[in-house]
Predict the 3D structure of the following.
Amino acid sequence: MSSRIDSLRSLLAQDPGNSRFRYMLAMETLNSGDLEAAAAVFDEILDRDPDYTAAYFHGGQTLEKLGRVEAAKAMYRRGIEAATRTGDAHTRSELQGALDLLGG
């Protein structure tokens, strides 16, 4: 396990509600190649903070890499709803593009 992952886990232990730290942990875990663990962290982010729109795109991409296409589509759809609700047009566009590539 990388020291960055350990450091992020330590930060989360001190501040478990910090979505940014959790997102950073998800991305670092993804970059380490542990797709299953990364997908689980993306799910944790969205369970705790469903308006953390950045997590939907990378979470969906991770699910695609795991071959879970229907789950990825569902995540993109939920992300589009969240991005619309929060006024995040850029993320909404990215999510719509990803969904369109999968055939919606």
User: Anything to note?
Assistant: The chain has a mean pLDDT of 96. The chain has one domain: 3-101. DSSP finds six helices and no strands in the chain. The radius of gyration is 13 Å.
